[in-house]
Each structure stands twice: as structure tokens, then as C-alpha cells.
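Entry 14. Ran structure prediction on the chain below.
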Amino acid sequence: MSNLIDLFSSNQDLIFILILAIFLGVELIKNIPAVLHTPLMSGANALSGVVVVGAILVMLNADPNNYLILGLGFVAVVLGIVNVVGGFAVTGRMLNMFKKNGK
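Output, C-alpha cells:
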């Protein structure tokens, strides 16, 4: 139990940033109307790109023996990249619906 308390106390600032990011993300997504969800996908792609860059920077500055931070950074990079790729796929499909058929 003392190891867990030491882990939280040594990474208190990073855990605080993670909790704030979770609350901010939930509030942003919850307040977007369904009508605006697809047009705002490109903005979400930009935010996910920022998440990927931020996670890479955190991983670069982390202690190589701190597996918690490295693991969380890796998960953030993977989920951010999946979100960016999925967002571009959805946006591409949406834009294809508005193209005129050239028959």
C-alpha cells in the first residue's frame, strides 16, 4: 500500500492533469449537439493530434524506469492515433455523400 501512495505522490501533477483532461473531454463531448457532431470531426482530429504530441512529449521527459507514465503515454498515443484515423475516415465518408455523381 505504501508503494501505491509513493507512486501517487511522486506523479501527483501528472495524475491531476489526466483527471482534468478527462473532465474537460467529457464536458466538451456532452455539450455538442448531434447535428454538429460530424462537421466538428475535423476539430476533434486536431485535438487528438495535440493529445498525441503531448503524450509523446510526456514520454520523452519521463524517467525510463517509470513504467506507469510510459504505459499511460503509450495508451494515449495509440488511442489518439485511432481517433485521428477514425475521424478522417468518418469525415471522408461524409464528404463523399455530398459529391455529385458524374454520370
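Residues 40-103 form one domain. Will compare against last week's run tomorrow.
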